[in-house]
Known about the structure:
Blueprint: H1 7-16, E1 38-42, E2 47-51, H2 63-68, E3 76-78, E4 84-92, E5 101-114, H3 124-139, E6 149-155, H4 167-191, E7 196-203, H5 218-221, H6 226-244, E8 250-255, E9 264-265, E10 269-270, H7 278-292, E11 301-304, E12 311-316, E13 319-324, H8 335-349, H9 353-357, E14 360-363, E15 370-374, E16 377-381, H10 390-396, E17 404-410, E18 413-420
Parallel strand pairs: 6-7, 7-8, 8-11, 13-14, 14-16
Antiparallel strand pairs: 1-2, 2-5, 3-5, 4-5, 6-17, 9-10, 12-13, 15-16, 17-18
Helix pairs in contact: 4-6, 6-7
Amino acid sequence: MAKKPSAESLRARLIETNNENVNQVNPNQHAPTGWNPGASWNAESKSGEIITGALNEAPDDWGPLLEHYGLNPEIYEIDGNTIQMTAWDGWGRENQGDDATSRVQYSFKAKIRLRNSAFDEDDTDLLAMLEEVSKKRKSRKKTQPKGGNTFVVCLSDWQIGNADGGGVETQLDALAALPDLLTDELARLRKSGTDIDEIAIVGLGDLHENCEGFYRHQPYTVQANMRQQAKIVRRGVYNVVVAMAPLAPRVIVGAVGGNHGENRGSGNRYVTDKSDNTDVGVFEAVYDIFDYNTNDAYKHIDWRIPEDELAITLELSGYYVSFTHGHIARMSGGAMNTLWKWWEKQALGRFYPGVAAANVLVTGHFHHFNIKEQRDRTIFIAPSLTDVSDYFGDANGVSTSPGTLTFTVNSKGWDNVRILTADD
């Protein structure tokens, strides 16, 4: 049975319970070692500690306790993540005049810190430093990297003639909208302060669907023959170059071959060598058109058309960017892991020296947008022009988001990544 308290201890507790703000009982009654009530503050470390007396419950407001120990609650506060509690059996009253009863009593301990808005006299140097840094940042002029920026346009996986996602009609709509989308994006970037003095237009392959040799039911689903596919692709590329070439003093047009551009027969059988690729051949046809044209607006175009290489590397505003379709990388896990391992092998074997040294690798083939950056190297996977991804849905249960990948590069890296669609 608990020992009956003396009259003196009862009187002390009666006095303590008169403090309406704290609801405190006798602060010294059987407090555990190390829990003596009080508060401390170290001006040098700007930290302190407070220990309550015996309480019936946790304080809702620590302000009165801080003020009781001479700490202004407008300057100091409790760090709520540091509150500790101890409990013991003791005596207390619900209200003044009630009989004392046995109950569990509590004491609380917490760290004290300065409020965020509170600075004492020692902080004047810090405030002065912050003000000086702010002035310097405001006065610092933003400078564009030497050589400006290159606006990169990735023409990837049009697969003209494919029946997925609305087929040829949807593909024609997307191609018709593309020149305006590109010129509008270029104007938006310049208006926002991006200095663009070079444009790179690169075909990433699979611009044609082809008619056979890629999957068993292809001949039964394709919506355009090879002549029709070639005409649509040729005019689509031509329209993009006509729209963009007059808008920058330097223009680069390049291409790489994709698997759907290969000359195959039935049974996935190659008919000729890897240089026989319609994805590259269509850019040769467009080059001939501009080469014959006497309009000076197009004489500054630099054409980069490979013979049989399946990857090309361009120096764009001081940054090295490589382009490949992606089908030559042997599958190893997901799309991004496959490409990353291929790039690592190129860096080691240097079969394509430009790819080995590039800062950025841009691919298509996988019909969805993806990006990975690691140690100043970045891979972009460009999406398909339209939703030609029934196979993707069959395998993964979801469809992909189509569009045309664009971004900018300069000597410091890449920026302004966007996927342009006819809905923009």
